[in-house]
Amino acid sequence: MAISKKLFNKIDCVKIENVTKKYGHITAVNQISLEVCGGELLILLGPSGCGKTTLLRTINRLVEFDEGRILINGKDNRDFDPVILRKNIGYVIQQIGLFPHMTVRENIGLVPKMEGWSDAQITQKVKELLEIVSLPPEKFINRRPKELSGGQQQRIGLARAMVMDPSLLLMDEPFGALDPILRKQLQEEFIKIKEKLNRTIIFVTHDIEEAFRLGDRIAILKEGKLIQLAKKNELLVNPADDFIADIVDSKKKFKHLEDLTTSDIMIPLDKKYFFESDSSTDLVIESMVRKDIELGIVMQKGKLLGYIKLQDLYQKSDKNLKHFIKQSMVFEPLDSIALALSMMKEKNEFIAVVVEEKPIGILLTNEILSRLI
Amino acid sequence: MSTLFKAVGEHLFLAYSALFVAIVIAIPLAVISLYNRYLASILLILANLAQAIPSFAVVAIVVPLLGIGFKPAIFAIILRIILPLFKNTYTGLKNIDHNYIDSAQGIGLNEREILFYVRFPNAYPAIFAGVKFAAVIANSVAIITSLIGAGGLGEFIYEGLTNLNMSKVLKGAIPAIIIAVLLDIGFTFIENKFTPEK
Asked: Hey, what long-range contacts does A71-75 have (CB within 8 A, 24 or more apart)?
């Protein structure tokens, strides 16, 4: 069994130089040059078909490009064996692609197994990773993908990508298929994971909010070309052209915060998010997994008690749902969004509930908005 | 009675040695075809044609080529079942959700590892369906091949039919039916055991 060596312990720089990829007459990536610094999270942002996924896939050579070169720590990525290169680069896709015939442990541990790790080593590593993505190992290690919700599957996908401790992570719209509230929750969690791990990450998305929330710098692509690469504030202040001005400004509402109310910004609450306080914890877990949500609003006789998070429910076995409830800040639909967000920021709250007699929506702190306050 | 046991033995040996050889050839062929588009398209065309040829004709065509007896009979059975076996295995290995392959490559598995750890496990249902189908055909062709002197249960049936000796016909037909039913139950059992729950 060949043990692959670690190609890079730390990323100093990923340098993409004049990379071009053509598919027949279509130029998917056109002379793109950019530099990713060690430790940063760089976003590749653009509409579908702009070449962002293709560019991402040239880095781990899932796509072989036609011209240019890509240097990782100064070494041409085509000088490496592609399989060994990919073991050194984590890769997460929107569709996740967990193998349905394998358990969580087997999915995460497959590459280590190929590398000849012992069973004990694999189990140890899988447990560590499950902790990081906040899934209690003993509950999840032997499950199969079909027994997991979409959000849980995506967490396993991330754990699998990190199993070889890659110093570089490529992520292709990992949260794109999730429902908006869950997406924001996972983004929030991901920010924490990212700080803990200190990896270099290249992240593809078409969601401007996600880009601003997660990215250190943002590269905006259009029709295979790089239009602008800058820090987020710079994009807002100095957009390179109308296309970018349009993207970053597409939601003009950001400019008129004082006119906006919480009901303009909130995410409306569907019936599926509501739970009764006397339900048993196990049934609530089952129901949340089935509905693929990780956040619930707990009510008692039509009154709001607070919110629950799925991963908290896993932490201890306690039938009484009330013990898991967290108090949430409450706003009225006509409260100003500026006020609401600054109060949330002050209290370091990620979630608030908008109530008009009963809860009607959820406010999640928003990176762009809070920066503009 | 002992002649009956001997005939059952011959029948089983004929059908299953042919099935075994056909599997041993068809699966590697399917794997090679995964990486060779030309071979794949030629074999798939042949497989579709072969499905349309009556078993009786396959047995008949073997005689001018190889003569009569046990070996030509095995050859005829293999000829009849190898292409359906190939087709099922190939499509099972090939038509796997692209995301599995994409993520398998992305996490750094090589082609061989992808084949054994991702493609095969997901193709088991299709492969087993092919083996089951081939076993059923082998079972029935092994009756026909007694016409070309391969022995087995078919001999009772043909002799019974020509002499209008119904008890002899049944002596051949009933074991053949029992074997077919057991075969189906057995393969379904194995299939359930090996098929991953989805």
From this structure: A71/A13, A71/A14, A71/A15, A71/A17, A72/A7, A72/A8, A72/A11, A72/A13, A72/A14, A72/A15, A72/A168, A73/A8, A73/A11, A73/A12, A73/A13, A74/A12, A74/A13, A74/A15, A75/A7
Overall average pLDDT of the A245-252 stretch:
65
Question: What is the domain-level CATH number for residue A74?
Answer: 3.40.50.300
Instruction: Kindly list the strands in the beta sheet with A13-23, ordered across the sheet, starting from the edge strand earlier in the chain.
Output: A26-37, A13-23, A67-72, A75-76
The token duo for A152 is 């849980």
A339 and A274 in one domain? yes
Same-domain check for residues A123 and A244: yes
Domain extent, residue A111, equals 13-254
Per-residue confidence (pLDDT) for residue A208, from 0 to 100: 85
Query: Could you tell me if A135 and A211 lie in one domain?
Result: yes
B117 to chain A nearest CA, in Å? Answer: 9
Please tell me which of the candidates A88, A91, A144 has its beta carbon nearest to residue B106.
Answer: A91
CA B50 vs. chain centroid, Å, equals 13
Q: Do residues A339 and A248 share a domain?
A: no
Residues A367 and A241 in one domain: no
B118 touches chain A (CB under 8 A): yes
Do A40 and A171 have their domain in common?
yes
What is the least distance, in Å, from the CA of B108 to any CA of chain A? 5
Q: Point out the domain boundary residue: A224, A254, A284.
A: A254
Q: How many CB atoms lie within 10 A of CB B140?
A: 15
The domain spanning residue A262 has which CATH number?
3.10.580.10
Whether residue A232 sits in one domain with residue A88: yes
Instruction: Give the Cα separation of A324 and A314 in Å (integer).
Output: 10
Domain count of the fold of chain A: 2
**Complex ipTM value:** 0.80
Min CA distance, A100 vs chain B (Å)? Answer: 6
Count of domains for chain B: 1
* Residue range of the domain that includes B123: 2-194
Q: Are A86 and B105 an interchain contact pair (Cβ–Cβ within 8 Å)?
A: yes
Cα–Cα distance list, A256 to A217, A236, A259, A261, A352 (Å) = 25, 14, 6, 10, 21
Region of residue A134 (phi > 0: left; psi between -120 and 50: alpha; otherwise: beta): left
Asked whether the predicted pLDDT for residue B32 surpasses 90, the reply is yes
Instruction: State yes or no: pLDDT of A88 exceeds 90.
Output: yes
* CATH code, B138: 1.10.3720.10
> Who among B102, B105, B121 is closest to A101 (CB)?
B121
Nearest residue on chain A to B125, judged by CA atoms?
A101
Candidates B108, B110, B196; nearest CB to A101: B196
Structure confidence at residue A48 as a pLDDT band (50, 70, 90): confident
Domain co-membership, A240 together with A353? no
Q: Is A136 on the interface with B (CB under 8 A)?
A: no
Q: What share of residues in chain B are helix, strand, coil (percent, to 5)?
A: 85, 0, 15
